């Protein structure tokens, strides 16, 4: 099964109680179809006492089973908590978004996609506009008095 097909048959389950295990999660979602894999990501910090990060992923054999699980289990109560069940999204590259060690505008193609023009093109446009701007007509006039004369 390709990555795109696997993603379509995978659901995200959020808001899980710490007591929930992979087996309990699989048992709760089994009525919707054949389950290929259940994953509960571990906390990032090794010192954390939590068994998982409060969410998990369930991969079904068929895409239709995943949709059925979303329709029936989203906003339902599981171990005293209301859970969120949605289609899983692709995992972001480690060089994207929050946590990246690279500034977003330094990533390949970001300026072309979001900025429209490069910094050099913008500077050239500003210089061209400045060169064609007519000089102020009042510049160089010697005006001693401002306001009405009495």
List the helices and strands and how they pair.
Elements: H1 3-8, E1 10-14, H2 22-29, E2 35-39, E3 55-60, H3 63-73, E4 77-78, E5 81-82, E6 84-87, H4 110-115, H5 119-132
Antiparallel strand pairs: 1-3, 1-6, 2-3, 4-5
Task: Give the strand order, joined by hyphens, for the main sheet.
Answer: 2-3-1-6
Element-level helix/strand string: HEHEEHEEEHH
Number of strands: 6
Shape descriptor reads elongated
C-alpha Rg (nearest Å):
29 Å
Q: Please give the alpha-carbon distance between the first and last residues.
A: 93 Å
Question: Which residue ranges are poorly predicted, with pLDDT under 50 across at least 5 consecutive positions?
Answer: none
Count of individual helical segments: 5
Helix amount: 25-40%
Strand content: 15-25%
Structural class: alpha+beta
Biggest sheet, in brief?
4 strands, antiparallel
Give the overall pLDDT as a whole number: 81
């Amino acid at each position: 099964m390709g990555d795109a097909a696997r993603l379509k048959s995978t659901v995200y389950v959020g808001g899980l109680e710490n007591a929930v295990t992979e087996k309990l999660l699989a048992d709760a979602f089994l009525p919707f179809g054949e389950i290929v894999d259940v994953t509960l990501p571990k906390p990032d910090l090794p010192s954390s006492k939590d068994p998982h990060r409060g969410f998990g992923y369930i991969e079904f054999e068929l895409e239709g089973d995943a949709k059925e699980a979303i329709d029936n289990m989203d906003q339902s109560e599981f171990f005293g908590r209301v859970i969120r069940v949605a289609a899983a999204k692709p995992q972001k590259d480690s060089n994207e978004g929050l946590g990246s060690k690279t500034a977003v505008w330094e990533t390949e193609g970001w300026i072309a996609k979001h900025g429209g023009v490069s910094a050099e093109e913008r500077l050239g446009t500003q210089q061209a506009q400045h060169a064609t701007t007519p000089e102020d007509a009042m510049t160089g006039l010697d005006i001693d008095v401002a306001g009405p004369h009495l």
